[in-house]
Amino acid sequence: TLGTQTDYRDGEAQTDPYSPEYVVPSGSVPEILTLAALTWGRGLPAGQAEMEIIDRIREKRAWEAALPPMDSPSNMAKRLKMMEAMERKEWAYREEEIDKLQKVQLEVFKKLLQRREENQNELVAMRLYNQWQNHQKAKEEKMRKVQRDCALMLRKLIAKRKNLMGKLERRDIIKEYSDFSSQTYAPLSRIGFFPDNNSDYYAAKNFYLNTFAGLCELEKSVRDSVFHLKIKAPKPKCTKTGYIKKSGRLDAVLAQVHQ
């Protein structure tokens, strides 16, 4: 429905208003023919500017009708004077139109420049914000590094302060085994202990599982009933008609999964 409304709606199929054919009688010039250049969407329906054009056309026709005939030198001089005045009036009107057009273009240019300046300001602000964020991250990382170094130096100073005079201390075995963070339970790698080297030290090693001879001996000790499995198929819960209900099928699946 939406696609049909989009493709075949009235706005897409609407054409220009119908203009019937006309015949102009000889000797007459209808005023409506002066607006033949105006079409729907280009001057029609008429607005303020079109009404001004219509008024100017009427004034010009009235001026043409008021021109004196060229039958005497005085009428010719008067006609030439009227035509010069009309020409100056036309040039003044044309200059006024050019000024209006230039003002409109200037306003459009101002809006475009303002929009471009706003976009440029947004880009600059975004760039500055990104740089500020990067500096903030670098500062926080530097602060964390300083804090880690400070904690490390404090631990070193505390350790040095325990034995300020550099005296040798006897090993306290009871204290080491009572403290699970001591070198006995958790030795440090910097003193030469690497727990990954002997990772299989505490792994359980079984003769019967890790060697072929042990597997053979283990197989001999197992009873024959272990190798011969007996599986009983579950009886389907069906009705008198032979149809298995959904609950019965689900019970069978659950029993199989559980097994």
TrEMBL record:
Leader peptide range in chain numbering: none
Compartment(s) where it occurs, according to its Swiss-Prot or TrEMBL record: Cytoplasm, Cytoskeleton, Cilium axoneme
Domain of life, source organism: Eukaryota
Major localisation: cytoplasm
InterPro entries, A to Z: CFAP91, CFAP91_dom
Keywords, in A-Z order: Cell projection, Cytoplasm, Cytoskeleton
Domain CFAP91: 4-156
Gene Ontology CC terms, in alphabetical order: axoneme
Family: Belongs to the CFAP91 family.
Name the UniProt record assigns to this protein: Cilia- and flagella-associated protein 91
Underlying gene: Maats1
